[in-house]
Write a structure and sequence with these properties.
alpha+beta; Alpha-Beta Plaits; SH3 type barrels; 2 domains; four-stranded antiparallel sheet
Length: about 180
Amino acid sequence: MHGSEANAAPPVVLRQWCICYTVPKGERWVALGLQRVGYRCYLPLLGGRPLFPRYLFAANVVPTVWRPLRSVPGVAAVLLDRADGRVAFAPPGLVEALQAEEEERARSALGAALAAPRRAVERPGQACVVSGGPLDGHRGVVVRMGLGQDGGLVLVALFFLGEFRTVQLPVDGLAPAVD
């Protein structure tokens, strides 16, 4: 399995992706276990390693049935919404942006885009690292670009304080994530 969906199906826009927290180094076998019980899984990879260690995304064909995924071996927890205790979902468009970025990387000839270091974040789905400020060093994923009056803000999904959060950051305060 490479970084795309664990099954060979092409990326599909699904309404809701929950976030599973796995046992250490268990992302790949948890994805297979979730597929066996009917969930679609997505494990974003960068350089062959999980972009978010111990986390993967799962979507269900029946979007109201989430309880069975907690019983899959290797699922340590499912992120919950603090307000109501229900399953929390990834920000809309995050998984699709990650999948689009992976498709783009796969299409690039011999990984030339990965070999040459990039100077700035370029597109939604790109892995990035915050450089400077209170979030310095946090890894995230670009969700949307060109925000703000001058287009200099980027919407980034970061994992901190126990959940995925989207924040607007200046584009010059981000650097592409490299292995």
